Amino acid sequence: MALTQQEIDNTIDALNTQRAILTQADIDTLVQTLEADGLNVQTDASGNYFIQTGSTQLPSLPPASSNEMMILNNMLESIRQLVALNKGGGVDSKEVNRLIKDYLVTEKVQQSELSDDVLKLIQDTKKLEIKFPELESRKGKTIFPEPITSMILSDLMAQNNVYLYGGAGTGKSFIAEQIGEELLNCKVYTLPCNQYTSPLDLIGGQTIEGYQEGIVTRAYGNLDVPEGKDGALLLLDELPKLDPNTAGVLNDMLAKIKRGKPISNGRQEQIQKGKKIYVIATGNTKLNETNPNYTANFEQDRSLQDRFAGSCYEYIIELGSEKATMTGFLFIFNYLTKLRFEITDKNLDNVAFVSRRLMESCRDTHAFYMAQNKQKDDGSGFGKFPAKTVIQALESFFSLFSPAQETDLKKATGYNEFKKESIDAMNRPEGLEFVDTVEQVKEAEKLVAKYMKIQLSKYVYLKPFGA
Q1: C-alpha span between 81 and 79 (Å, rounded)
Q2: In terms of DSSP bridges, do strands 49-53 and 263-264 run parallel, antiparallel, or are they unpaired?
Q3: How many CA atoms lie within 13 A of 158 on its CB side?
Q4: Is 354 strand, coil or helix?
């Protein structure tokens, strides 16, 4: 036979915590079970059982303090009495659990009464608590993909303008903002670019509320950068959508920013360079091409394209950071990751695509469903109601595809298995609502490793010495 480590641990635990109420025959049976598996069962000076492995004892419970022993003895005595009362008629396991819980709750042990060995055991075996952060945005210094982040940082520190392009929802703007805020400690100024963006948005101008400074001049001069920040990052979001006339003004401003020369604002005042200024632009397409999926898209002037020469990167999907934001919901992350790349392989991105936003939407839908399940109607008239499930969210997403495409995608990605996992997740007991299983964690790690490797291998410019 081959016992699992969990079965071995459970057997040792039973020998050490229940031997006062076990018969000798029961104890012999448990020991024989372990020894039949090739394990060397020993007892220490206190009578505790452990597995002898070479010179190492695994696991050996530390000696209990007198106070702990008194509590344990009292608890076991109550259990023995319960066994005696029910002899021949079985024992109510719920009643035993209640007795144990009562002793654990009511009999308090002060830290000063515990031995150093017990304190160390508590610290070493303390559970890590995973809390869902009230749907707030998570930030961290480990969310950035390599080697692309090092390349972006190298460009920015060399005062090169960076252009990131790739499919919608891949996280280009998100990562750009995080690099500016967390790695460069800058205030991020975001200019949403479209056909309605005017030169006044860049340099400033008169409005009904008075003169408003332009976003480029504000960023370049660090005009409202708060104390504690090292400078500004100018994020030109969806740059290819910019009207060519406005793009011409921006091109001239970027040329002066690169040289550190003053730029003029809407009042024709000279704005001097502030402490630091970095520029990142994003888009769904290259700067030198049009895209039929872009409304009012214009192929940009070659001179504007040249402002980002040598620093244009097709952005990879950073699965590591996505996985971090989906902790506790990895059954959703795992399925949507497989679906995302299946859609790409089948060239269905023009129909619909899996984005970071879709992942977070499904996560938040499931979180609300679980919270609503526990809520009691308080009589306000807007209490508990049938909340939307994550399965309904996915069905809504699949409705964007044709029936044939939907059937093909569901079959290729194991949708029925995902539905089963979702139902299991919806039935989790309180306290375990957002706890991932070992299998889900392992699958998430494999998916991240697999698809990051595929993406990184596509781009020669991510290799220090090329192909």
Answers
A1: 5
A2: unpaired
A3: 12
A4: coil
